[in-house]
Amino acid sequence: MIENGLSVVWSLWTGLIIIWKEDEVALFRRSTLHEVVADDFGRAFARPPPPPDRVAFVAGMKREQIPDYLPAIFTENYLPKTFKTQNVSLATQYEENGCPTLPMSVQIFSLDPLVIYIRNFLSPSERAYLKILAEPDFEPSTISSDSSTDPSIRSSYSAILESDDAVVTCIARRAAKFQGHIRLSKLEPLQVVRYFPGESFKFHNDWDIDEPPGKRRSSTFFAYVGCEECVGGSTRFYHLSRNGTSKRWCDVVDCTERALKGVKFLPIEGNAIFWENLKDGVGIEEVLHAGTTLEKGVKYGLNIWTRETSEWT
Questions:
Q1: Which residue in 115, 136, 275, 299 has the fewest CB atoms around it within 10 Å?
Q2: Which pLDDT does position 54 carry in this prediction?
Q3: 267 C-beta neighbours (distance < 10 Å), count
């Protein structure tokens, strides 16, 4: 017990830190990449899963992100020096060394409409970083360009990422390069989305019929940031066909529900799906898709949307 009823246990052997106050518990793990990685908040200690407004925190985060009951001097005075020296910001690494080149592999799932599956789109360290970066800014997910919400359609929480962050910029450049080195100004700010059990996003298209021609979303990346111990939470395309699909796809596509119409991509961490939303300026109905209900675990995804022109705002 250190102060304000806050208790801390740090294990040199396991690299785990447990911080708790009364019934609030946070578990952190020091990764082999020398970063502080926030584990599923209270996963081993709290049932049921925490509510959406519960904020996980890590040593070394911004002062304004530290919960009120956690002393602001905690990160300076109470953690062992060996721990503090290994809390290296991934953004600083990217600023100093430049954007990394990942060993991505790409497979075309469908030519018309164009749907491409990308393995290793996000590195493990990027995925951990994005979860921590997004955590303080989660708000109910919107369903239209006017920022309206409807939990009966989309019940997740989303966070818009700062475009001047070095890690976010590198991921945006990766998406732009994938599309033929398009201008970064065509990309919307990247969005992390989080699903708790019971949450989903009903069938929808990413192109908005209410948007004027020339400013619609021409393409989408959806990357799986995290989905430890997930059950459910796949991405289902209603009109895509599995007829003739090789069994070699079964490591990323649900092949168990043979009678199911469409295709369900499994939420595999680090991988991404890319698809085109428009053809000759017209919305493609065949990319109608949904985020199926998450039954267990916590799912994090990353939306990267590209507009037809840079002057879309």
A1: 136
A2: 36
A3: 26
Query: DSSP labels for 89-109?
Result: -HHHHHHHH-PPPP--EEEEE
Domain spanning 99-307, CATH class: mainly beta
Prediction pTM value: 0.72
Q: Which among 229, 234, 237 is positioned nearest to 252, based on CA atoms?
A: 234
Q: Supply the pLDDT for residue 258.
A: 74
Establish whether the linkage from the previous residue to 113 is cis, with ω within 30° of 0: yes
Domain range summary for the chain, segments of one domain joined by +: 6-73, 99-307
Q: What is the pLDDT of residue 260?
A: 78
**Ramachandran angles phi, psi of 60, nearest 5°:** 95, 0
